[in-house]
Every structure is written in C-alpha cells, then in structure tokens.
Amino acid sequence: MKKKEVLVLEELLGSNKKIASEIRKNLEDKGILTINFLSSPGAGKTTLLERIGEKIKPDYKMAVIEGDIETERDAEKLRARGIPAWQIITGGACHLEAKMIAKVFSEIPADLDFLFIENVGNLVCPASYDLGEKLRCVLLSTPEGDDKPKKYPKAFTTSDCLIISKADLLSLLPFDLEQVKKEALEINPRLEIFITSALKDSGIDELMSFFLSHLNKIRNQHA
Amino acid sequence: MHELSIVTNLFEILEEKATEHKAKKIVYVKLKVGKLAGVVPEFLETAFKLYRKDTIAHSATLEMEEVPLKIQCKKCKSEVTKDDFVFICPRCGSRELKTLAGTELLLEKLEMEV
Q1: What share of chain A is helix, strand, coil (3-state, %, to 5)?
Q2: pLDDT tens digits for range B69-108
Q3: Residue of A nearest to B14 (CA)
Q4: Which residue is closest to B11 within chain A, CA to CA?
Q5: Distance of CA A82 to CAs A45, A78, A146, A169, A182, Å?
Q6: Minimal-distance CA residue of chain B relative to A122
Q7: pLDDT by residue (tens digit) across A59-102?
Q8: pTM to 2 decimals?
C-alpha cells in the first residue's frame, strides 16, 4: 500500500460555475438580460416583478423563473398577470443552482428582453450560487431592519444593485436609510442603490432605466 | 444550510480523482475556506462526516484552512487583511480595491492509498 499526495486546487462550486457561464453566454447571445433577485422571504420580490411586468408590458417582453421550497403560488400570481413564469420547486433546498435553471432552459423563449430569476427567499445560501445572471439584485425591505448589509455580507458583496423595498413604510419605522446606504457601500462600493415601493409605484422607473441601460449594453456588445 | 449540497460536489471531485489516480481509498482531504465564501466550516464538517460513509473516502480526515479576507488597494498598493467587511482602504481611504483572498472555496489537496 503506497500513499500518494495529490494537489488538486479545484473550486468546490466549479461545476455550478461552469453551467452558469454556459447559461450566461447563451442568454447574452440571444440579447436577453438576466437578473437574479435575492432577498429574505417576504421582502417583496414577487410584488416588484408584478409591478415591473405591468410597466414594461407594451414595449418589452419578460419572463420569470421562480424558485421556492414549495408551491406554484408565485408563478401562478405572475401568470395571472400575463407574465410567463416557470416554477422550480426545490423540495427543501434553500437556494437555486445553475443546473436547476438549465433544466427549464429549453422552455425559455428566445425573443425575450428580460429574464428574471426569483431566488428562494434566503439571504445566505443563494449568494454562493451563480445562476448565469448578468445582474444580481439584493432586495432589503424596510420592515426587516437597517442592520442587514453587514449581517449578511455575501449577499451584498456579490450583488450589483441594492433595492430597498417597501419604502412607503419608511415614515412608520425606525429604519435609517442613510446608514443602510453607507454600510452597503462600505462592503460593496460598486452597488447601485434604488429606493422603491412597488405598491405606491415609486422608484421603479429609475430601476427600470438601470436595467434598460444594461440591456442596451449587452445588445451593443453582441450587435 | 447549503453545506450538504457543497459536500455533494466535493465527493463528485473525490470520486473523479480516485478513479484518475487508481486510488484504493482517500485518507485525507484538505479544503481552503475563505472568510467570505459564505459557508460555515462546522456545518461543512458535519455534512462531510454524514456523506463519507460507503464512499471512497469513508475513513478520510478533513482539514479546513480558514482564509482571511485580504485586499489590495489599487491606488496606494497596500495589502491589508480585514476582519470586517469594510471595503475601504484603511491607509488612503480609497474604495478601489482588489480582493486577493478570502472568497475561495477550494479543494486544495488529497492523500490517497494506491
């Protein structure tokens, strides 16, 4: 019996990264902007998507991949508003992985403008998984409290944009908006921050302009 | 709690390496876990112990090296190890930083019996 030492230096999530890169390339080649929404449960991801769907309907096509531990509820909600949606039920898993996206991939129409992925509600695990998105957005709703960026650093350091949701409740809550912005930019100086209320329709136009500028960017690159 | 899912990936690599090197068994596994890798080392260890039964690494010991977050300032070039996650250069205040280490989740090396 001989002992042998082998140097490996392989990333444990390397296989996820590989699938994610293929998905990203495929979608970008089609001129589709893919956006991954991360947040804790109840931060308002689905409501924001409903509002976005309403706003862009006459001009742009969008679809949503929904990740949930159980039920088709979110996808049904979106379909009821005319937004094509695919539900991935993870059956207990706390996050989506690139291979789950790959499974529904063949059903995604090629003529989309935006593909949103609504991740499983969880501020921890989804942050470790690249799903092939071009943009990652973390939502923080005002009732969750203003201490989240530093408590969940990975979700904030890996995101391109921070969406503060339920801003219509700001006047009722001890939520220090300036402090959140400061802390979020300390852990990730390149974060774009949007203050939104899907219910009151505020801040959504600014967010959409940001998405549109990225859509134009990938289309110019692939023109 | 995505550590079990990560350990599943680890064992896929272990099986691959064992076949490649015609190993009878794997006896030692060394991981590098960055402070900002988003995993809890204790949970990884528990998942590893659960998963290893009936695998090529059933008696393997697991070692994890925690890697601190290390950044380099693009302006003043100083390299700093950070305990917090404040991405501001403590020397010159710049926010233009490069992460040198601390986000990795790597299988560094293995020991096997061949």
Answers
A1: 45, 20, 35
A2: 999 999 999 999 998 889 999 999 999 999 999 999 999 9
A3: A8
A4: A12
A5: 17, 7, 34, 28, 38
A6: B1
A7: 999 999 999 999 999 999 999 999 999 999 998 889 999 999 99
A8: 0.93
Closest CA to A200 of A76, A57, A48: A48
> Nearest residue of A to residue B20 by CA position?
A6
Cβ–Cβ under 8 Å, residues A136 and A164? no
Interface of B with A (CB under 8 A): 1-2, 5-6, 9-10, 12-13, 17, 21, 23-24, 27, 31, 36-39, 84-88, 95-97, 104-114
Q: Which residue has the tokens 């505020």?
A: A202
Tokens, residue A27? 């979608």
Q: How many angstroms separate the CA atoms of B45 and A148, rounded?
A: 27
Question: A27 φ, ψ to 5°?
Answer: -70, -40
Contact between B114 and A2 using a beta-carbon 8 Å cutoff: yes
| Rounded CA separation A96/A133 (Å) | 12
With beta carbons under 8 A apart, name residues in chain A contacting B111: 3-6
- What is this model's ipTM? 0.90
Give the CA distances from residue A173 to residues A141, A145, A176, A178, A201, in Å, rounded to whole numbers and listed in that order: 11, 9, 9, 14, 19
Neighbours of A109 (CB within 10 A): 11
Chain B residues close to A2, C-beta within 8 Å: 113-114
Alpha carbon of B95: minimum distance to chain A alpha carbons (Å): 6
Evaluated on CA atoms A24, A28, A32, A38, the torsion sign reads positive
The residues that bridge with B109 in the sheet, in sequence order, are A7, B30
Q: Do B9 and A16 touch (CB under 8 A)?
A: yes
**Best to test chain B binding among A6, A96, A191 (most B CBs inside 10 Å):** A6
CA pair distance B39, A12, nearest whole angstrom: 12
Provide the token pair at B99.
Answer: 């992460």
